[in-house]
């Protein structure tokens, strides 16, 4: 979600009311010069690293059949959502922050904001699903009636459809808007309710005052819903799931949970934690700014940009976590990078455990050879 345009329009608005317009413009221009380099470097790194990393995850799933576990199906969809975000959101946000103008037209504005909201919801809900998958993997040992690829695929398809449909109103809630600051015309992609607030209204006109108050209420409702539905409630759900998981682990014997399952669970915990930590500051900042109406003065724009950079960096972190935390992903990455797409034996070994499956054909063949050699010796 792009809130800098909303902030700058509010800044322009508030400065006119306080008769300190020139000071606010100086703040704005100083911000542009100081933050442009940081934004450019951060967003460029996000695009390059995120594109390479998530493409590796995608290729790993497509070409290494042994990696197609239920958890990795969810990881695949995380990579798809992050690639959509990188292609359709990060570049536009970067250009918008650096240039402080929107050059891409009204249609792209709507698509950009729609995609940003869709991917935000999909990412956090997939993490909830991944946490639930880990709970079932450990707490429902031997029970595959619920936790199987078919059910996971159905759940993910439903998730995507629901999120895509429920976010359709965003196509009508954001639009391109032009205004002037320091005798310079600016075009922004902005939440339309902020346009109503930015206009000069007649205090004696009751209908205009009602429209103004309604717009303020809708802005608060918009950011409250986003904060609760795309961050707080999913995070609470994840905490509950892992609380139940920890309780279950204390009840069952350690030997009942394999080492590989524990490692995968740890990897998922790290992925979830990185998302919560990266997106938390931005979510809290938006909530305080638009709902609580905390007066940050000029520094809030700098904080907004920094928190936005941290949040966007999360899109390139997950593939790195998979590689560090999971040996199978490291091997799969290496196989893809050396263009070894043989899904039957991607790691060039006779006994390779990939994900959670074993190449049984190779083991049986080797066992027959050993028996044959043994018989020859006895003869």
UniProtKB/TrEMBL annotation:
Entry's localization field: Cell membrane
Signal peptide: none
Disordered as annotated region, ranges: 1-20
Membrane topology, as annotated: Multi-pass membrane protein
GO cellular component, one term: plasma membrane
SMART domains linked: 7TM_GPCR_Srsx
G-protein coupled receptors family 1 profile domain location: 53-322
Keyword field contains Metal-binding: no
Main subcellular location of this protein, as a coarse class: membrane
Glycoprotein keyword on record: yes
Pfam families (UniProt xref): 7tm_1
Keywords: Cell membrane, Disulfide bond, G-protein coupled receptor, Glycoprotein, Membrane, Receptor, Transducer, Transmembrane, Transmembrane helix
Molecular functions (GO terms): neuropeptide Y receptor activity
Family statement: Belongs to the G-protein coupled receptor 1 family.
Name by which UniProt lists this protein: G-protein coupled receptors family 1 profile domain-containing protein
Organism, as annotated: Brachionus calyciflorus
């Amino acid at each position: 979600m792009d809130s800098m345009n909303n902030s700058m329009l509010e800044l322009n608005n508030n400065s006119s009311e306080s008769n300190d317009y020139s000071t606010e413009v100086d703040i704005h221009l100083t911000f542009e010069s100081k933050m442009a380099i940081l934004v450019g470097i951060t967003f460029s790194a996000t695009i390059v690293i995120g594109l390479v990393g998530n493409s590796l995850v995608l290729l790993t799933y497509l070409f290494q059949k042994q990696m197609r576990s239920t958890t990795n199906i969810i990881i695949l969809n995380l990579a798809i959502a992050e690639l959509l975000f990188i292609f359709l959101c990060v570049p536009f946000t970067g250009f918008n922050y650096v240039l402080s103008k929107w050059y891409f037209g009204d249609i792209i504005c709507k698509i950009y904001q729609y995609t940003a909201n869709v991917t935000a919801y999909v990412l956090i809900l997939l993490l909830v699903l991944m946490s639930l998958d880990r709970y079932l993997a450990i707490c429902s040992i031997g029970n595959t009636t619920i936790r199987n690829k078919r059910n996971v695929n159905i759940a993910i398809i439903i998730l995507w459809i629901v999120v895509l449909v429920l976010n359709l109103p965003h196509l009508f809630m954001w639009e391109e808007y032009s205004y002037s600051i320091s005798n310079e015309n600016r075009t922004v992609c902005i939440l339309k309710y902020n346009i109503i607030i930015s206009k000069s209204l007649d205090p004696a006109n009751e209908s205009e005052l009602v429209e103004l108050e309604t717009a303020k209420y809708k802005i608060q409702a918009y950011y409250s819903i986003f904060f609760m539905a795309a961050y707080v409630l999913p995070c609470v759900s994840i905490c509950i799931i892992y609380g139940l998981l920890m309780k279950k682990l204390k009840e069952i014997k350690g030997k009942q949970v394999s080492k590989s399952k524990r490692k995968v669970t740890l990897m998922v915990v790290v992925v979830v934690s990185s998302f919560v930590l990266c997106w938390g500051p931005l979510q809290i900042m938006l909530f305080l700014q638009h709902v609580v109406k905390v007066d940050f003065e000029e520094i809030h724009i700098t904080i907004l940009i920094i928190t936005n950079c941290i949040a966007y960096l999360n899109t390139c972190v997950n593939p790195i976590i998979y590689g560090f935390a999971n040996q199978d992903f490291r091997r799969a990455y290496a196989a893809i990078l050396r263009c070894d797409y043989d899904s039957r034996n991607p790691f060039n070994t006779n006994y390779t455990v990939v994900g959670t499956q074993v190449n049984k054909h190779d083991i049986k063949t080797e066992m027959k050879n050993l028996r044959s050699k043994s018989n020859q010796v006895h003869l």
